[in-house]
Amino acid sequence: MDKYEHGGTDARIDFSANINPLGMPEGAYKALSGAIRSCGTYPDPECTVLREKIGQRENIQPEHIICGNGAADLIFRTVFAAKPKKALLLAPTFSEYEKALSAAGCEINFYALKEENDFALGDDYINVLEGGYDIVFLCSPNNPTGGELSEQCLLEIVTRCKRLGILPVIDMSFADFSENAVSANVLAEAGAAVIKAFTKIYAMPALRLGYMLCCDEDLLGKVSLAGQSWSVNSLAQAAGAAALDDSDFIGRTVEYISRERRFLTEKFGAMGIKTYPAAANFILLKSEHDLADIAMESGIALRRCENFCGLDGSFFRTAVRSHEDNIELVMALERGLLNG
């Protein structure tokens, strides 16, 4: 398996990609249709309307926001802008941080999240920061483990990082799926670079749209220069702005995902499949059986996790999808485990 492989497949039902099962907000579809004619002109390079709407949603001034071609684009741009020599990453976590840092020739150290602690961040992490780092990446909720950090914990880490001269980058791409609200603007005002994306929560991965909240004007300027002009197309800007107009969408999503995550967790437990505490729209699984092969017998794709640092072939990640799809997954695994 490729070291940096992501979810996504041509299976009948794809549980390997963590996309909101409610789909894009209806207003975003309408905005896309209306924006087609704008393809004959260049998009707004400043994403003016979109940044204003993000600012209203996140309670932060638009000048502290930069938009990009998805979260991955902003991860790479931040690394190239900051030019770090030594970085600290969690293991396991999202692979794009390591990929970007490696491309920039940065030395990378890993902090191992321990299985016996349900892959939660250990109390010693705050002291590990004393290791002479220039940049640290945190993902909350963390992909693929699903665990999240409280706002108080994140603020403590950001404060320590700033005292040590470390740039703390917090990826909150899955935070809007959580029942536990964390204020991204508070973290940005404390000194973090906070990255979020429309990809998962608004179910628009093909449009490539993400944003960063940061109150460090110098860093924002460098991140802007590290990217290409017109990095966010007109269709993405229109859909993103319209999605933000649906003020109830995230609330509906959290309620739905929480209910379906509980359903799946209970069913997995009844089958003897180990699960780990999850706050987002996916669950990390562990089994002595090849759950991916079993599921694929029914045309269902799970995400193998053996290419995540710190995990092996017994780990799998499943998205939380519609109730109908979730029932199909449960039935497929029950059949396979019974016949196995």
What's the quick description here?
The protein is built from twelve helices and 13 strands. It has 340 residues and is an alpha/beta fold.
Could you characterize what this model shows?
By secondary structure, the chain is an alpha/beta fold. The chain folds into two domains: 13-22 and 249-339, Alpha-Beta Complex (Aspartate Aminotransferase, domain 1); 26-245, Type I PLP-dependent aspartate aminotransferase-like (Major domain) (Aspartate Aminotransferase, domain 2), CATH 3.40.640. 39% of the residues lie in helices and 16% in strands. The chain is built from twelve helices and 13 strands. The chain has helices at residues 26-35, 48-58, 71-82, 96-103, 125-128, 151-164, 184-190, 217-226, 234-245, 249-270, 291-296, 323-339, and strands at 13-14, 65-68, 86-91, 107-112, 135-139, 167-171, 193-197, 210-213, 274-275, 282-286, 300-301, 303-304, 315-319. It has a seven-stranded mixed sheet with strand order 2-8-7-6-5-3-4, sandwiched between helices. It has a four-stranded antiparallel sheet with strand order 9-10-13-12, covered by helices on one side. Helix 1 (26-35) packs antiparallel against helix 9 (234-245), helix 3 (71-82) crosses helix 8 (217-226) and helix 10 (249-270) runs parallel beside helix 12 (323-339). The radius of gyration is 20 Å and the shape is globular. The mean pLDDT is 96.
